[in-house]
């Protein structure tokens, strides 16, 4: 009887751990299958003073629904984003960067490096 209780407890723990680690991957796969084509956006970002600023922008935008990939480079003052246009627009991505206190622009002419 004691062996059965230990076995059932072990199975329950293993199932819970497996669900925790592998259900997230399944959700991401389903999300990628639901969405159509991803678009790439390159943005000029000014106002960053260090690599920490770039990391903060990157981490914040990675959590935004519709953005699948975010990379911000402090040295080049550029951000690269892969996003689902059915969930978020280019302008919304730029506005999100501006909400964080930085200036963002798609076209190079209106961009002025302020760091």
Automatic annotation (TrEMBL):
Instruction: Enumerate the PANTHER family for this protein.
Output: ATP7, ISOFORM B (PTHR43520), P-TYPE CU(+) TRANSPORTER (PTHR43520:SF8)
Q: Which domain of life is it from?
A: Bacteria
Q: What is its EC number?
A: 3.6.3.4
User: Could you tell me the keywords of this UniProt record?
Assistant: Hydrolase, Metal-binding, Translocase
Which GO terms label this protein's molecular function in UniProt?
copper ion binding; hydrolase activity; P-type divalent copper transporter activity
Q: What is this protein called?
A: Copper-transporting atpase Ran1 (Protein responsive toantagonist 1)
The source organism is Sulfurihydrogenibium azorense (strain DSM 15241 / OCM 825 / Az-Fu1)
- Which Gene Ontology CC terms are recorded? plasma membrane
Tagged with keyword Translocase: yes
- List GO BP terms, alphabetically: copper ion homeostasis; copper ion import
Any signal peptide, and if so, which residues? none
Task: List the InterPro entries.
Answer: Heavy-metal-associated_CS (IPR017969), HMA_dom (IPR006121), HMA_dom_sf (IPR036163)
Task: Name all HMA domain ranges.
Answer: 39-105
Q: Output the Pfam families linked to this UniProt entry.
A: HMA
